[in-house]
Amino acid sequence: MEVLLAGTIGCLYAGAFYLMLRRSIVKLLLGLGLLGHAANLLIFATSGLIRFAPILNESAPKAPSEVADPVPQALILTAIVISFGVLAFSVVLIKLTAAAAGTDDVDSLRTSER
Amino acid sequence: MTRQVILVLPILVPLAAAVFSVAASFVVQRRVALVALTGHLLASALLFALVASGEVFAVQLAAWPAPFGITFVADTFSGLLLVSMSVITWLVMLHSTASVPREIQRLAFFPLVLVLLAGVSGAVLTGDLFNLYVWFEVLLMASFVLLTLGAERAQLEGGLKYVALNLIASAFFLTGVGLLYGTTGTLNLADLSRQMSDLPLSFPRIAAVLLLLLSFGIKAAVFPLFGWLPASYHTPPAAVAALFSALLTKVGVYSMIRVGTLLLPQPPETLTNALLAVAALTMITGVLGAVAQTEMKRLLSFHIVSQIGYLVLGFALYSVAGLTGAIYFFVHVSVAKAALFLVAGEFERRWQTTELTQLGGSYRDAPMLAAACFAGAMGLAGLPPLSGFFAKLQLVVATVEARAFLSLVAALSVSMLTLFSMCKIWAEAFWKALPTTSTSVAPEESPRAMRFATVGLASITLLLGAFAEPVLLVAEQAAEQLLDRRAYLQAVLGGP
Question: Which residues in chain B touch residue A111, judged by CB atoms under 8 angstroms apart?
């Protein structure tokens, strides 16, 4: 399970960087999305790959080492909400940029640098 | 109790004002924003008065004890920065009521400025790593919108680069947070600091700290990660650029210093040497870019990068003298750079151009503006007795103490080039004869709010130079607290 998760996270990071290095702004955006997922999954892995939720059960109490750490999941939830908002803004931004520039090639978007 | 209320006021006041005025008309929004910024200024001044004696104090939100809840901490460093940022925002805001076009003011401009300030205040005051990420996103979101308000083509293209690079920085930040939480089980900065000094630096922790520094480096625009700044900062109205230069990149450096000093009690020598090299290269590439420019806002944008190098230099020296220099420089450069951007804003509004080749002889039309620009420009270049001189002197003394002579050479030669390009701005815009090919229009009368803000910021540069000693003493106290850490840890975690 750990190997599978580590592999998935690695693939997500690699895919994100690959997409961001392409010239299309749509792929840049997809890459940014994947990068966020990779970071979120990495944080998820720190809660420990344990089945049991940390719910207090008086009749059969569990030791802290037997339950998953809930804090990373709260962090991820926050990060997901934030990245959703930011991505929504970015979608509008790239749409306006592509319409104003008439191209989706990142390399030709140099008006502001000349 | 009252102290703890004062600690959260700089975040609450602008945030609440923004939320309650977002649906109102822009005239109401403007009034609300001026009142809220005055409130922010008062709250920051009170906070600074509380921490000026060297005391550090903390608030545990919802009474969750540290390290389990979210903590806000105030020490001399954060107090000093909050006050300077608040004063600058107040004056820039006043300037923007006259210099930013009406159609942009209508697009919720003032609530966005308030959200930006709330985000910056939160990032400065928080004592929790994940909470820092959240405040960063708050201020970034506001800055994304402020940067692209009006949706001109150059703004959109610059904005895209700014958004993409800052989102990558945020992802690096999250990755670093994940690695740190996985190896230490805590996100509280004070608790992390204690754990990092108790245990040897293992590989994941080094990687985590490097990722955090990398992400702050992108946000602060250090070499070689500064590409987004000159591409985007000159595209919005000059008042927005003034605000960004005083708040955004500076928060990146602030976090670098705060998190760096807390998480690396004894930084490895390779890291400090690498930081020294980055600082020197940032100064040099920034100023070389600036020398080549003939448009005022672009020239100043490259100078932001160059000045960030001096701040990183003070941090990389990791000594009380170096950090004192960096903190004084922080205050000085925020004020002087904002003043110069406001001068550019007056040109934008009254002459309809900031292109130096189109301008000339403005001294006759605007002697007051010429004086303000001269004070800001020479202050930035570091001519005695202005603020930049004392800032650079302190940094030079610190580099000599640390025997970092290459950095010393870089800092002094960049200073010469800064003087050159500042003379260029002043001479081209105010002194030389108006070129016959110029298409600039005859200037209209300067609105009073705009003149007051520009001259106000320029006179603060003069005051910072005249009262350099008390400010340097406060900066020294802040630097000692940063390196000693005991007061910070005790305020957050309690105990001895």
Answer: 153-154, 157
- Closest Cα in chain A to B137: A82
Beta carbons of B167 and A39 less than 8 Å apart:
no
DSSP state of B74: E
Please give the DSSP secondary-structure letter assigned to residue B445.
P
Best of B129, B162, B174 to disrupt the A interface (most A CBs within 10 Å) is B174
Strands (E), A57-110: none
How many secondary structure helices (H) and strands (E) does chain A include? 3, 0
The B-side interface with A (CB below 8 A) comprises: 130, 133-134, 137, 140-141, 144-145, 148, 151, 153-161, 163-164, 167-168, 171, 174-175, 177-179, 181-182, 185, 187, 230-232, 234-235
State the maximum Cα–Cα separation within chain A, in Å, rounded to a whole number.
71
Eight-state DSSP code of residue A23: S
Return per-residue pLDDT of chain B as tens, 496 residues.
Answer: 788 889 999 999 999 999 999 888 989 999 999 999 999 999 999 999 999 888 898 999 888 887 888 999 999 999 999 999 999 999 999 999 988 888 999 999 999 999 999 999 999 999 999 999 999 999 999 999 999 998 888 889 999 999 999 999 999 999 999 999 988 889 999 999 988 887 777 888 889 999 999 999 999 999 888 988 988 998 999 999 999 999 999 999 999 999 999 998 888 889 999 999 999 999 999 999 999 998 999 999 999 999 999 999 999 999 999 999 999 999 999 999 999 999 999 888 888 888 888 888 888 888 899 999 999 999 999 888 899 999 999 999 999 999 989 999 999 999 999 999 999 999 988 888 888 777 767 677 778 889 999 999 999 999 999 999 999 999 999 999 999 888 999 999 886 5
The DSSP string of B223-267 is TTS-THHHHHTTSS-HHHHHHHHHHHHHHHHHHHHHHHHHH-SS-
Phi, psi of B106 (to 5 degrees): -70, -25
In the DSSP assignment, the letter for residue B71 is E
Asked if A20 and B171 count as a contact pair (C-beta separation under 8 A), the reply is no
Flag whether the ipTM exceeds 0.90. Answer: yes
